[in-house]
Amino acid sequence: MTVTYQIPGRVPDEDERSDVSRYWRGRFPEEPYSAEGEHYEEYEPAYLAGHEARVRDYARAYEQVEAELRQRWEADKGRQSLPWSKARHAVRRAWEHAGHWGRERG
After folding, report:
1. 12, 30, 91 from 50: Cα distances, Å
2. Is residue 81 part of a domain?
3. Containing domain of residue 76, as a range?
4. CA 51 to CA 101: how far, in whole Å?
């Protein structure tokens, strides 16, 4: 597997999205916001949103973009039932982890 380096403004490809999903699927049960009866699939869009936002906007701090991410989540979530009050934890974790993504893959 090749290493994907963080290049500000790049768009993750399908392989990366699959790798991100696989990573968080394995971690989800151990995350402190994961409650009994909840499933990874409910949170997957939030993990992908956080990861992709960080890749696109690598230089800014999470606190600088959280309001934008919330607005985008609420506008684009469509049929997703996960409210921002729950999604935000997964979005932030994925945002933080994406900063290390290129160094951990390979």
Report:
1. 12, 18, 4
2. yes
3. 14-104
4. 9
In a domain, 1, yes or no: no
Q: Buried b vs exposed e over 5-31: b needs ≥16 C-beta within 10 Å?
A: eeeeeeebeeebbebbbebbeebbeeb
Provide the token pair at 22: 């696989």
Please give the Cα distance from 84 to 91 (Å, whole number): 9
* pTM, full prediction: 0.80
End-to-end CA distance of the chain: 5
22 and 1 Cβ atoms separated by less than 8 Å: no
pLDDT tens digits along 34-57: 999 999 999 999 999 999 999 888
The pair of three-digit structure tokens given for residue 75, joined into one six-digit string: 């506008």
Domain count, the chain: 1
Tokens of 54: 């960080």
